[in-house]
Amino acid sequence: MRIFGFQEFGSQDVSTFLDVEEPTLQPGSVLIRPKYVGVNPADIKVRSGQRQGAFPVNFPMAMGREATGVVIAVDPNHALAQTVHPGDWVFGGTLAGTGAASDTAVLLDADQTARIPDGVPGELATCIPVAAGTAWDTLQSIADEVRTNEGASASLRDKTLLILGAGGGVGTHAIQLARHLGMKVIGATSSASKRAFVQGFGAQQVSTNQDDWLDTLHTTVSGLPSPRVDAIIDLVGGEILRTTAENLCTSGSGVVLRSLADSATAEEYGGSGITRRRTTEVFSELVSLLGANEFTPRVSKVYSFDQAAEAFAAVEEGHVQGKVLIKIS
């Protein structure tokens, strides 16, 4: 079969189409015929070698960590085999050490695989394992800390969430899922051109490329019914995160901070990184919310398998809005 993958760590140049043997069913896996593959910034970090020690790689390995498709076989000794059968439509995360960008077969982790309910488009379900799942896990972590600080009955309703880097895949899902939980959302982006895009998901927008952006943020917050920031999701890191934390996460502020991009800096200000759950139960919950129109992934572009290099390059350049997918014909 043909994959778009890599045989060594490196830059974009090490990615290419490769002919490899078709995988066979492994313990704890689901073998699928792929239809859609999600493309994410983390895929670039895996290929570059930045995730060595944290993410297993078996060369040659296909790019991508999430896929949707039709079940070929399920590990009969796994509990999923009781509810998922050959011919079913499923989505999920790839088995450790394997990738998703293949024209023939993909191994999903059975612990991270869920059925797609009738009426839910497969391309939208593909967006759940990485982008929507990360956003949901982050919000649940924030909710846990709020309950710890304010009592078991506390919720996120009517609290204000600031998202740094709100225009990408995780950010746009975080906006919608936070609003589902009743939060007020402010989306910070690097460009004013993303204003309409972010506002279209129901968030107010500020642009971090302006010198006075924190003043704009404070003005925006002061106009809300509860004039304070209660939680921050950081998807950018670096100086933007540090400047924001220095202004908002002061001693006794009670602001809950979670960072996907820069956990070390977040920890300096009393925050933390993001712990992913990646379970069938979580993914099933999210696909149910998707089916109920509680959130809708924004797919910016769907590439063909032959255009896989262009798809990953577009994400690596960092200018896409929403999610990029590859469709396997």
From TrEMBL:
SUPFAM superfamilies: GroES-like (SSF50129), NAD(P)-binding Rossmann-fold domains (SSF51735). InterPro entries: ADH-like_N (IPR013154), ER (IPR020843), GroES-like_sf (IPR011032), Lipid_raft_assoc_Zn_ADH (IPR052585), NAD(P)-bd_dom_sf (IPR036291), Quin_OxRdtase/zeta-crystal_CS (IPR002364). CDD domains: MDR_like_2 (cd05289). Gene3D superfamilies: Medium-chain alcohol dehydrogenases, catalytic domain (3.90.180.10), NAD(P)-binding Rossmann-like Domain (3.40.50.720). It comes from the Bacteria. Residues 10-326 form the Enoyl reductase (ER) domain. PANTHER family: PROTEIN AST1-RELATED. This is NADP-dependent oxidoreductase. The lineage of its organism: Bacteria, Bacillati, Actinomycetota, Actinomycetes, Mycobacteriales.
